[in-house]
Amino acid sequence: MIVMINVQDFFNEMIVLATKDKVSDIYILPSEANAYHVIFKQKIQNQRYATLSILEAKQLHIYIKYKANMDIADMRRPQSGQFCITKNCFMRVSSVGNYQQQESLVCRLIYAFTDLKNGYLFPTQYQQLLSNIKKTGIHIFAGPMGAGKTSTMYRLADELANYNQMILTIEDPVEIYAPKFLQLQVNSLANMEYLDLIKVGLRHRPDVFIIGEIRDNQTAKAVIQAALSGHTVLTTIHARSAQGVIPRLIDLGIEKYYLKATINSIVYQELIPHKSGELQALQEQLLNKQIWLDTNTNRWDEMLNEAYQQEKISATTFQTYRKV
User: Fold this and answer.
1) What phi and psi, each to the nearest 5 degrees, are found at residue 40?
2) How many CB atoms within 10 Å of residue 287?
3) CA 68, CA 93: separation in Å to the nearest integer?
4) How much is the pTM?
5) Of which family is this protein a member (predicted)?
6) CA quadruple 50, 51, 52, 54: dihedral, nearest 10
7) What is the DSSP letter of 68?
8) How many Å apart are CA 212 and CA 320, to the nearest integer?
9) Per-residue pLDDT averaged across 73-84, rounded?
């Protein structure tokens, strides 16, 4: 059992373990009466790190909020802040009080992308992407939250940066720390929405845009405009398959003509448990003319079955992640 003797020592020990295990989030949440749970969120499962008394949790909340330059006296209204932990990691903090006036904290750990490289069930998939990403136009990534889409985009962009290309990212919020890139973050209070930042970004004349998410008609139009201007654009969108991306963009009001003129690749990605216990990326890729082929082939399940036949994944994993 973890015991808090000194709040600073407790925090430091917690961070050492969390960063070693590449924990994505640390929750400090009220539970049963007179207790708080400290929970590590990891890719495969959540793990309870410690149980604290109300007094201990309050001390930890105050310590973290102080480091994040937040108001330590306000325990009810939503707040956010951030601070640097190490050279390659910083923490983004969000706090809010519930109806019982119990404060909860969620701490997101933002790692340098070089520490977050995904393995691939089929390594040739990354090489295919890398070859195709050198073409200008839009490269769209879809998949569930936590699927490593942003990590993949950053890794590909870093390859392009090696050719002295300027990379500009626009995100809400920034999820990965990359000092070689110019990183902009959406800020509604400062009137810095996606569309505003894309307009600013175009004036900076980057070679490559990373746009965190296509979320509405205006963002989609701005992404199209950036691609028509000759830029390489890497972005994400909510869709349940590679084939679902084009209908989603049409629903957002983008004409098919412009999609055909700008989209270069569509990738649906999930992280799949390998038999080794590691999570590895599996992608369904539609590259170039494949995007517009009218086919009902269930390529995702075919690749899952191939991974199962090659004994890379278990039968349970195959059944869990198949689409049909």
Assistant:
1) -90, 125
2) 16
3) 7
4) 0.81
5) Belongs to the GSP E family.
6) 140
7) T
8) 28
9) 88
